[in-house]
């Protein structure tokens, strides 16, 4: 029976080694899955951060553009107001001059 015990020992040892290798492979697979999950979580977090930064930058740019557009409108409004004042002043001067001409013409006709 010594031979049978030796053969059983070999196969029993092989069986134990196989079980041990399967257990180690499972541990490696579990570690790989955990690492992949960690990497995906980090990538999602970074993508979210980048999106937030892009959104903030776009919002800042829009705010600046709106402010510049408002300033340009105010400047144009002020310029137009100044031009209108100048036109009204010249119209008043022209009216006064025309009234003077009319008065002289009346005086010549009456006189």
C-alpha termini separation = 163 Å
Q: What is the residue-averaged pLDDT?
A: 79
Number of beta strands = 0
Please indicate the percent range of residues in DSSP E strands (runs of 2 or more).
under 5%
What's the total helix number? 1
What is the share of helical residues?
over 70%
Show unreliable segments.
Answer: none
Shape: rod-shaped
Mind explaining what this structure looks like?
- With 111 residues, this protein is mainly α.
- It is 98% helix and 0% strand.
- It is built from one helix and no strands.
- The chain has one helix spanning 2-110.
- The longest helix is centred in the middle third of the chain and has 109 residues, at 2-110.
- The termini are far apart.
- The model has no long low-confidence stretch (mean pLDDT 79).
Characteristics of this structure?
98% helix; 1 helix; mainly alpha
Give the SSE map.
Elements: H1 2-110
Compact overview of the structure:
The chain is an all-alpha fold and 111 residues long. Helix content is 98%, strand content 0%. The relative contact order is 0.03.
């Amino acid at each position: 029976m010594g031979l049978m015990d030796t053969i059983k020992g070999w196969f029993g040892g092989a069986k134990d080694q196989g079980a041990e290798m399967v257990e180690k492979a499972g541990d490696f697979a579990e570690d790989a899955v955990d690492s992949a999950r960690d990497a995906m979580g980090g990538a999602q977090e970074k993508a979210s951060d980048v999106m937030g930064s892009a959104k903030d930058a776009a919002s800042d740019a829009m705010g600046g553009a709106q402010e510049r557009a408002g300033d340009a409108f105010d400047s144009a409004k002020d310029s137009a107001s100044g031009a209108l004042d100048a036109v009204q002043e010249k119209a008043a001067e022209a009216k006064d001059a025309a009234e003077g001409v009319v008065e002289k013409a009346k005086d010549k006709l009456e006189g």
